[in-house]
Structure of Translation initiation factor 3 C-terminal domain-containing protein:
Amino acid sequence: MRQSLVLQIARPLLRTAAPAASSRCFSTTPRLVIDQRRVAGKIQIKTIDDKISEFPLNEKIAALKVKVKTPGAPLSDPQWLDQLLDSIDRSNQYVLQMNKPDDGQIPIVQVVSRMELIQKINRQEDQKRNQKRLEKDKRPKQLELNWAISANDLQLKMKQMQEFLKKGKKVELLLANKRHQRRASSEEAQALLQAVREKIDEVGAAETVPMEGAILKQAILTVKMRGT
C-alpha cells in the first residue's frame, strides 16, 4: 500500500519533469555560437566622416587668429578664427589648417569643401598604396631549397629564380635542412651549391654579397642580374 502511494505521487512529478529534460536534449546553440564569433573579433570600419575628422579642422585648430590662404591670392591679414567659422557654410565647408607653425606664429588655413577633403583623402590613400607596392617590389623574392633537394624540385626552383631575375627582382636562395626529411651528405651539398651557382651564371646573374651561413646548415645566396 505504501509503495503504491509513492508511485502515485512520483508519476505526476516524472511527467512534469519530462518536457524540461526533452527540451534540454533537443535544444541547439548554433545561433549563440555565431553571435559569439561575431563579437569576438573587433572589426574597425572607418567611414569617410571618421577620416575627415582626423584632419586639423575648425575648433581643432589651436589658435585664436589665423591667416587664410586663397588660391591665386596673397595670404590674408590675421583674423579671428571664430569669426571665420561663423562666415562659412558648416554643413559643407571646413577650415583646414595647412601648416604646423612654431610657437607664437599664426597658423595658415584654407576654407575647403567636403568634396575637396574627400579628394585629398583619396590622393593620400593612393600614395600609401603606391608606396607599399614600391616597397614590396624592392623586397627580394625568396626561394627555399633543401640541401637534399631532388633533381625535379631543383629544376623547378631554378626556373622560378630565372623568372624573377628576368623581371629585375633580387632573389634570396635559402638553403637549409628540412625537418623529417633526409639529410644530405657533404658531397651532395657541395654538388647542389655548384649546380645553383652554375645556373646563376648561366642566366646572366651574380651573387651580390658573399654567401651567408654554412653548408649543411642554413645558408643564403643573394642574387640579381648583372648590370641592374
User: Anything to note?
Assistant: Residues 72 and 110 are 12 Å apart (CA to CA).
